[in-house]
Each structure stands twice: as structure tokens, then as C-alpha cells.
Design goal:
6 helices
Length: 178
């Protein structure tokens, strides 16, 4: 926040600035803990590298959007002048809370669930077409209607259905494939 305030704005090139890049790295570190903790079996290094690359890319996009939202709070719309740092800081605290506490928990869960499913998918591929796969929800009152509609869908691994319907299918999705 302070870096953006001092610069009097934000642009995509600033993602390489030390302070902003450090925010990307910290987000990536936290999400990578979820990825690393979800890998409980031997999986190809290529899959692990892909998961970490995706985590870093997501962290960059997240930081970019947060920085743009912070930057939009710099000017006082009534006077057209820059706000005092104290006023600016107070206004952007809610942005920080939303992005780095509220969203981060859901993002961490998504990283864990995505990694677990990627590892499971790798195992499914090792079995080839020996088994059918079945989409399952938590089957309780909290399941989204669009996910409930998929419950117990059973198809071969090669069916195009799986190109679009491998969980997680959204934030805090609790669905799985067996």
C-alpha cells in the first residue's frame, strides 16, 4: 500500500518492483504450503512443477488486482487531489483484509483441493480404462445445485465430461471423483 501511495499510482510494470514482487512471493509461499502439503504420494516432478508454476501465476494475478484496487483509492474524488496517507491507509485496510485474509483462506483450500485432485487424476491415468470414474458431492444441504446435478455421474476416464467437471469446481467446493 505504501509503495503504491509513494508512486502515486500503479501499473503492470510495477509487479517487478521489490515491494510488490515481495507480496507476490508471500502469497505464493502461503499457497505453495497448501500444494506441498497435499502431495502425499510419489508424483512426477513435471506435475509438481506445473502446480507450483500455476500457484505463482495466480499469486501474480491476485496481487495485480489488489494493487489496482488500492491504487483506485489514491484520489479524493471531490477535490481531485491525492488523499493523505492516513486517509488512504484507512480506506485500503478493508481491501487488505478481503484479499489477504478472507480470500486467502478460500484460495489456500482451492490450492490444496486442486493439488489433491491432480495427484488423484495422475493415479487414475495410470490405471487406464480399467475403471469408471464417478463424480461425488458431499451430498448435504450445503452442496451447490449445479454440483448436486452432477452427483453420481459415472463415466470412463476418457469421456470429454471430465475435461470440464473435475473438482474443485469453485471456491470451497467439496466434491471429489472416485
Amino acid at each position: 500500500m505504501q509503495h503504491i501511495y509513494v508512486a502515486r499510482g500503479f501499473n503492470p510494470e510495477m509487479l517487478a518492483d521489490a515491494d510488490i514482487y515481495a507480496a507476490i512471493q508471500e502469497t505464493c509461499r502461503i499457497l505453495s504450503e497448501g500444494v506441498n502439503g497435499a502431495i502425499k504420494r510419489d508424483v512426477p516432478q513435471e506435475l509438481i512443477d506445473h502446480l507450483h508454476d500455476s500457484t505463482f501465476l495466480f499469486s501474480g494475478f491476485k496481487t495485480y488486482h489488489e494493487a489496482r484496487e488500492v491504487s483506485a483509492r489514491l484520489l479524493d474524488t471531490e477535490t481531485g487531489t491525492f488523499k493523505s496517507f492516513d486517509k488512504f491507509f484507512e480506506e485500503v485496510r478493508s481491501i487488505h483484509q478481503r484479499y489477504n485474509q478472507n480470500y486467502l483462506r478460500a484460495e489456500y483450500n482451492f490450492a490444496v483441493q486442486s493439488t489433491q485432485m491432480a495427484v488423484r487424476w495422475h493415479e487414475f491415468e495410470q490405471d487406464g480404462d480399467r475403471y469408471l470414474l464417478q463424480y461425488r458431492t458431499a451430498n448435504d444441504g450445503l452442496v451447490r445445485p449445479e454440483h448436486q446435478a452432477l452427483h453420481n455421474t459415472t463415466l470412463p476416464i476418457g469421456d470429454p465430461f471430465w475435461n470440464d467437471y473435475i473438482p474443485p469446481l469453485g471456491w470451497n467446493c467439496r466434491c471429489t471423483v472416485v
